[in-house]
Amino acid sequence: MATKLLSLANIVRSPLNLILKQSNTHINYGNLKKFSTSPIVCVNFFNKLPAEKLWKSVTSVSNAGAKKGRGKGAGRIRIRDLNRGQMIGVGKVNMLWPGLSAPVIRGRELLKQQRLPDDPERMEKLIKLRDSMTKFRRLKLNPIERGWSGARMPGRSLGPPDPVADEEFVGFDTKVLQLRSLLIMKGTLGRTRNYQAMVVTGNGQGLAGFGIGRAKEAQAALRKAKNRAGKKLMHFDIYNNHTVYHDFYTAFGSTKIFVQKKNEGYGLMVHRAIKEICQAIGIKDLRAKVEGSKNLQHVVKAFFIGLLQQRTHQQLAEEKKLHLVEYRAENEYYPTVVASPSTVRTKEEIHKDETLDFIRYVMNDKVILKRKKFPRFYESMPHYELFLKKYEKYRNHEKIRHNLKAEYGEVKSFLNDKYPEEKVETEA
Fold this sequence. Notes:
The chain has twelve helices and 16 strands. It has helices at residues 8-23, 45-48, 51-59, 63-67, 122-134, 218-231, 272-281, 296-309, 313-320, 358-362, 382-391, 397-408; strands at 2-4, 39-41, 95-96, 105-106, 109-110, 114-115, 173-186, 190-202, 207-215, 234-235, 248-252, 255-261, 268-269, 286-292, 324-326, 336-339. A four-stranded antiparallel beta sheet has the order 7-8-9-10. Strands 11-12-14-13 form a four-stranded mixed beta sheet. Strands 1-2 form a two-stranded antiparallel ribbon.
């Protein structure tokens, strides 16, 4: 940066004229005329580049460095605005400069240059202000609004889709299943970055759909996927408003899903993406095991295919032309006819190799892989056998106590009805 030195004659003359008028003396300016104006180059590291480029060298990482994994924490370093909190004319020495830090005339009074009392806390305030600019502030979210992993988008709610014409999506909610960045190589533009989003939307009453959107910005991709999901809604039948009609096997690509119907109160023990789909549809009790590829898009598509392929009890009865009978533990396994076909086949019409087991039929003869349970390490030791012999006469006591409390409301003997115990009244 080049600066110019003004001639000393011009600088010194104005204050000296005031002094000469008061003292009536004369000074020769001949020697001052020898000074001339000449440019001087004053360049160093700090004023060679502007502040923006200096901060960029600290906070940014080159493309080659980013590929090698460098500068992962560079995003937390923030630019400090060193001019913030400072005022023109105010420095370490607190001075009043008319025309610079204060008006020349205040009312009818002509202000003069004067020194004001120093502010001992000035530097502390500046340092505190600069430190507040560099602190990395994480995005604070309500715990209910968080996704599967903190503040990331997968698992978070986006609200209902945008209205289509005059139709509004009342009671719908959209959940993000996937948001990822894609690098696409093109011959003309080179490497371009796009975002792909996958969401599911539903009203919790059997109506749901999923959509995939792609755009150059993450928010645009999410909005596009949400609106596509709202335009591709599907209706699913829910058994007793809490689960599916029957177990089923479904697959997409190399992803296999075994879905099991569960009783009320069991909950959702499934993949996290399937859990969001079930909540969007209104399914409350289900168990699903995913085998093979865990590709999220394949998992979602396979589960939707399985839900669309499930049949009601009446459809199954009409398909087999046999009565559909249910056995429940709470009914002491008493057979209950759930559905009956219009025409029933006789025993002679049933082929000997036909599958009559309901679970095998709806699962397409697929069996869930159950891992072999190995015995615990201490079960083969001699002291464990001694423990079982000593514990044999006490092993059912806890279970019996629970049954007695459930049946009679208290722990009492089985012969209590024949030989009732004397009740001792205790005085309070």
